[in-house]
Amino acid sequence: MKFQLLTLFPELFPGPLGHSITGRALTNGLWSVDAINIRDFATDKHKTVDDVPFGGGAGMVMKPDVIERALLSFPAQGRKIYMSPRGTPLTQNLVKELSKEETLTILCGRYEGVDQRVLDAYDFEEISIGDYVLTGGEMAAHILMDATVRLLPGVLGNETTPDEESFSNGLLEYPHYTRPAQWVDAFGAERSVPDILTSGHHGKVAEWRHQQSLDLTKARRPDLLDKK
């Protein structure tokens, strides 16, 4: 998969995605990233990329003509995404869909956002990572990219099972435990691993995990059950 980033800060990529699992996958050629500086496509001597909004108001708006030139510098744009708090929420199902694309071009806005006309002209899909506002779209792009890359074939290997993770089956993930089986915390309380997990009975372990997922989902995200 290829990610193409339109940003004012190309040095932020690959950023944290150049490390650990995603970093190894990048080195191994399972995905690639090409981040270009939108400012390079401004034509005036000051390299202006924004201007005051029509109708008044605070802040500045990124110019459509500059963004267009940056976008068209990519020979093929693939699926085009604009990271925006007003967009479609990023869910695991959407991530799965995105992971099947060959190319994703992601526009990272700054200031008050970008001129609506360029979004309309090039059919940008707006995607939100949550109900809050960031100073720019770069961190949101990192999140979308991380969630997508880890689903690509060969990225995770045997390190985890995506189908058992939170949201993959419509439920939150069950709790995990590891050695030591008996642990005394700093407060002096002894904490033990649930007996079922050391029983060796795989069927009962699976049942316990499923019930734990149900209980956690009911307690923390009942809205997920309403969708099932």
Keywords:
alpha/beta, Alpha/beta knot, two-stranded antiparallel sheet, Trp Operon Repressor, Chain A, five-stranded parallel β-sheet, 18% strand, 228 residues, single chain, 2 domains
SSE blueprint and pairings:
Elements: E1 2-7, H1 20-27, E2 32-37, E3 50-51, E4 61-62, H2 64-72, E5 79-89, H3 92-98, E6 103-107, H4 116-121, E7 125-128, H5 138-149, E8 182-184, E9 190-192, H6 202-220, H7 222-226
Parallel strand pairs: 1-2, 1-6, 5-6, 5-7
Antiparallel strand pairs: 3-4, 8-9
Provide the helix percentage: 25-40%
CATH architecture term of the largest domain = 3-Layer(aba) Sandwich
E-strand count: 9
User: Could you spell the SSE succession in H and E letters?
Assistant: EHEEEHEHEHEHEEHH
Low-confidence stretches: none
Mean pLDDT: 94
Strand order of the largest sheet: 2-1-6-5-7
Considering the protein shown, what is the CATH homologous superfamily of the largest domain? SPOUT methyltransferase, trefoil knot domain
How does the helix and strand content classify structurally?
alpha/beta
Distance between the termini: 31 Å
Shape: elongated
Entry summary:
The protein is of the alpha/beta class. The protein contains 7 helices and 9 strands; from the N terminus they run βαβββαβαβαβαββαα.
What can you see in these coordinates?
29% of the residues lie in helices and 18% in strands. The protein has 2 domains: 2-149, Alpha/beta knot; 162-226, tRNA(m1g37)methyltransferase, domain 2 (Trp Operon Repressor, Chain A, Orthogonal Bundle), CATH 1.10.1270. It is of the alpha/beta class and 228 residues long. The protein has helices at 20-27, 64-72, 92-98, 116-121, 138-149, 202-220, 222-226, and strands at residues 2-7, 32-37, 50-51, 61-62, 79-89, 103-107, 125-128, 182-184, 190-192. The model has no long low-confidence stretch (mean pLDDT 94).
